[in-house]
Amino acid sequence: MRTISESANARDRLRRIEGRHNPLVKRLRLAFARAERTEEGDCAIEGARILEEAIRSGLKLRAVFFRESAPDRAERLLPQIGAHVETLLLPDKLFDSVVPSDSPQGVAALVRLKEFSLDDVLERLQIGPVVVPVGLQDPGNLGTILRSAEAFGSAGVVLGEGTVSPLNSKVIRASAGSVFRLPIVATKSAAGSLDDIAPMLRAKSVRLFATSSHKGTPLGDADLAGPLAFFIGSEGSGVPRDLMAKMDEVVVIPHAQQVESLNAGVAGSILLYEAARQRK
């Protein structure tokens, strides 16, 4: 098997790193482990397609790391990476110890994500609904919601307490790059708590909707025109009762009785599609 070390074009560009204590390697490992921004403001991503989405989205690359036995990844991606970006070559064992994927694709990177505030989201209400996942722990579901939010039009996503980090590597992968472009705000940061956010949404004449698996207005009968926010709870417990009491309307997505409920990713996608359909 040919390695990157045997590829002349890649060898001229890459700096080989042997030790796990290299500052950039340590930063990448920490960013993956914590699923949050580093002190320098970078987050960790992995996979060729995700890196290409980051480049296409105009994100600033801090450093790109290649697995030594993945020459095809380097040859494909290096022409897309600016000369000012550090490109590092890691032995397979070191790369695999840093990147959390069960089947590493041979490339990872530190990138600078765009930062948004709640005001940024509220300024986009003409685009579509605000999506508020509450206590959503499954990274695949959150990634699916982010992807659908971009696809069907959303003002942005406000992450409620207990929701998985959008910088989780599985969330990023499931979002297919939407996490790089969609305004996403965490309530525990600049947005305040969910108790603070509901009044702020109402002040902008935003109607608050939640979903239920059995009781509520059938989705086809709900008026989803105008500014609105969808609160999406976890499959296990749904939207908390105290928060449900603040909703303007609860909607139910009709489905076969033998199916107890839809998962949050599917339910959120259907809501976003129906809101987009009604807007048009």
3D structure, described in words:
The chain is of the alpha/beta class and 280 residues long. The chain has two domains: 4-112, 60s Ribosomal Protein L30, Chain: A (2-Layer Sandwich); 118-279, Alpha/beta knot. The protein is built from eleven helices and twelve strands. It has helices at 8-13, 23-34, 48-56, 71-77, 92-98, 118-122, 139-152, 169-175, 194-203, 241-244, 264-279; strands at 15-16, 42-46, 60-67, 86-90, 107-112, 130-134, 156-159, 184-186, 207-212, 217-218, 228-233, 249-252. Strand 6 (130-134), helix 7 (139-152) and strand 7 (156-159) form a beta-alpha-beta unit. The longest helix is centred in the last third of the chain and has 16 residues, at 264-279.
Quick structural gist:
It contains 11 helices and 12 strands. With 280 residues, it is an alpha/beta fold.
Number of helices: 11
At the fold tier of CATH, the topology name of the largest domain is Alpha/beta knot
Overall average residue pLDDT: 89
What is the makeup of the main sheet?
7 strands, parallel
What is the CATH level 1 assignment of the largest domain?
A: Alpha Beta
What is the terminal separation in angstroms? 53 Å
Identify the overall geometry.
elongated
**Which structural class do the helices and strands define?**
alpha/beta
SSE sequence, one letter per element? HEHEHEHEHEHEHEHEHEEEHEH
Number of separate structural domains: 2
**Biggest sheet, strands in spatial order?**
8-7-6-11-9-12-10
Provide the low-confidence segments as ranges.
Answer: none
Q: Which oligomeric state applies?
A: single chain
Radius of gyration: 21 Å
What level of helicity do the residues show?
25-40%
